[in-house]
Amino acid sequence: MISETKFHPSTELLQEFAAGTLSAGLNIAISAHVEFCELCCHKTSEFEAKAAIDWLQTSEKHSSSDYSDMIAKIVSQPQQNHIEQQDPSLSEIHMLDHSVSLPKVLAKAASNGLVWKKLSGGIKQAQLNIDDETQCEFIYMTPGSQTPAHKHQGSEITLVLDGSFSDELGEYNRSDFIMRTNKDVHQPRSDEGCLCFAVLDSPLTFTKGIARLLNPINNYRFRRSMSQRAV
């Protein structure tokens, strides 16, 4: 783990993460950050311990017969007599001149492989099908690249995995966890190159130039992708 992280999930997000109430995509992003960040790892452990104590206190209100019935149901289920082989993980992503080791949870999420698409401005994107609530993707910004200026209709979570990028609101380095809302307008750019994992709960909206013509397409593709996963 490293301790130079400047940007972290909020306390509320970490509490929801510990309670298991977030979307799968957001859970993965926070879990990867926690693997990087000693401070958030410690906080998460505290929240998980408190949640366990609360559960035990609540469980004392149940009668012993309730547990007997629960155990009987578990025992009656057919038992597996073999161990399923786990899918191999994609432990690294190869960039221009080096490889980036992924946090364990992201390596598992990307185990089926990544299909990279070239976007405008020197940006590459590889999407992951995690859940039907969010769009999850790896974003690689080549050195000297920048995205079109845009805002978000909802929220965007970005975890920096390697390199750095900046926007009108700050500069972000490896392990930083950045949250943007529908109140933010920004134009990320990277001088040295940057690999990120991003989670969006709604399509972005370009705010300048010819890129604005793509907004209807972005909206359609996002909604269509979410509806297909929900089937």
Brief write-up:
With about 230 residues, the chain is α+β, with helices and mostly antiparallel strands. The chain has helices at about 10-20, 25-35, 40-60, 65-75, 105-110, 215-230, and strands at about 90-95, 100, 115-120, 125-130, 135-140, 145, 150, 155-165, 170-175, 175-180, 185, 190, 195-200, 205. Helices cover about 35% and strands about 25% of the residues.
What does this structure look like?
The protein is an alpha+beta fold and 231 residues long. The chain folds into two domains: 11-76; 92-230, Jelly Rolls, CATH 2.60.120. Helices cover 34% and strands 26% of the residues. It has helices spanning 11-19, 24-36, 38-59, 64-76, 104-109, 215-230; strands spanning 92-94, 99-101, 117-119, 123-128, 135-141, 145-146, 150-152, 156-167, 170-173, 177-180, 185-186, 189-190, 194-200, 204-206. Helix 1 (11-19) crosses helix 3 (38-59) and helix 2 crosses helix 3. The longest helix is centred in the first third of the chain and has 22 residues, at 38-59. The two termini are 39 Å apart.
What's the helix and strand layout?
Blueprint: H1 11-19, H2 24-36, H3 38-59, H4 64-76, E1 92-94, E2 99-101, H5 104-109, E3 117-119, E4 123-128, E5 135-141, E6 145-146, E7 150-152, E8 156-167, E9 170-173, E10 177-180, E11 185-186, E12 189-190, E13 194-200, E14 204-206, H6 215-230
Antiparallel strand pairs: 1-2, 3-4, 4-5, 5-13, 6-12, 7-11, 7-14, 8-9, 8-10, 8-13
Distance N to C terminus? 39 Å
* Unreliable spans: 79-87
Specify the biggest β-sheet.
7 strands, antiparallel
The CATH C-level name of the largest domain is Mainly Beta
The CATH topology of the largest domain is given as: Jelly Rolls
Mean of residue pLDDT values: 86
**Which value, in Å, is the CA radius of gyration?**
20 Å
CATH superfamily of the largest domain: Jelly Rolls
Helix proportion? 25-40%
Q: What's the architecture of the largest domain, going by CATH?
A: Sandwich
Helix count from the secondary structure assignment: 6
Count of the domains: 2
Tell me the β content.
Answer: 25-35%
